[in-house]
Amino acid sequence: MIYTQKQRTLMDLWKQNKLCRLNILEGSVSSGKTWISLVLWAFWVATMPQDKLYLMCGKSLTTLKRNCLIPLEELVGSSNFTFSLAAKEGYLFGRRMLLEGGNDARSESKIRGLTLQGAYCDELTLFPRDFFVMLLSRLRVPGAKLIATTNPDSPQHWLKTEYIDRENELDLLDMRFTLDDNTTLDPDYVDSIKAEYTGVFYERFIRGEWCLAEGRIYSQFDPAKHIRREGPSKGRWYISVDYGTMNAFSAGLWRYDGETAYRAAEWYYSGRKTRRQLTNTQYLKQLQYLAGDRPIEAVIVDPSAASFIAELRQAGFTVRKGKNDVVDGIRRTASALQQGKLLFSPVCTDCIREFGLYCWDEKAPEDRPLKENDHAMDEVRYFVSTIMCGDIHYHAVKGGI
Ligand SMILES: Nc1ncnc2c1ncn2[C@@H]1O[C@H](COP(=O)(O)OP(=O)(O)OP(=O)(O)O)[C@@H](O)[C@H]1O
Ligand SMILES: [Mg+2]
Predict the structure, then answer these.
(1) 193 C-alpha to ligand 1 centroid (Å)
(2) What's the 386 CA to ligand 1 centre distance in angstroms?
(3) CATH number for region 5-185
(4) In ligand 1, which atom is closest to the CA atom of 7?
(5) Fewer Cβ close by (within 10 Å): the C or N end of the chain?
């Protein structure tokens, strides 16, 4: 095994017995945190008592398997590490290891009552704070340790304010990794990852900074680059919908050739502005008008609009419920804009207007857009997350693509 310099520094701390109770490896994507955290975890566990209990957790069991369990198996060999997701347990050098997903509302109760010698957490900022607090209270035997990795988030995130910022008061080691620390990567690959992120996501995922999501969300939207009179001559047609009765109803007509999506037209209606609400049947008529005689592959709809979804299906449309993970969707949309894969006809005036106005809620403790000027923005995001996401060149580990 050949370590990068940063990784060697960490392993030297372990050898000199200078690890802390809480050890957090944070920083940019692909900076080698997970790889070295697994090496460290395996070496450390192997020196710890065999009759004690250990825990490995990720945002979900699926991401834990993909990000950690399979790489760990590759690192130490399947004779030293075996696991079963169904049984939610594994054995590492003969030590029993519980496996858990931290984002499950019931996960906190599952670790209640345990006594752990060690815990490993992947992508720690994605865990609920209560789960983490409970986890720390379970690490109650002498020499118990936590090893965790994470990308940075908002500077107001609980992990930053309550733990990392208090490094000097707590028994906590915080080690920061940057993309350039990972000297095992091909420079072309590094360039391509850098090009995938933009705005606040670039600051966090490439530069490794805990920085606030502030100001305009899609600052990379540039009329000169993204507004085009002509769309592609090939491709399938889709309609994306954000449903509203008092709030605006927004629909976009898209042509997508598997590479680039062109928003050819839109229909935007504000019941509040016009003081006249429309019925589902009237909305349906407008969508049929927007579709014209084009074959519509699918209508991607706000997942909460149950009655309208039923109406669309009855009228013969194929409906797909929009994937609604807001921040992941924004990240994908920003990435698609950055890569020039989202283009807009000048007739999409309300969508273009919202691009200029859509802002982060700077007072919120976590990343959250202000709930205004967000109707077209929501359906653009549903379209990108549901239809395009597998086709955007996007760092595979993030966002669960
Ligand atoms: N010392 C090393 N030797 C060989 N390959 C390495 C080494 N360190 C890291 N890598 C490889 O570099 C890539 C990125 O490393 P890793 O997954 O650990 O990054 P990360 O910091 O956890 O990123 P993310 O924030 O995206 O989870 C992986 O493919 C990993 O196998
Ligand atoms: Mg990782």
Answers:
(1) 13
(2) 28
(3) 3.40.50.300
(4) 1
(5) N
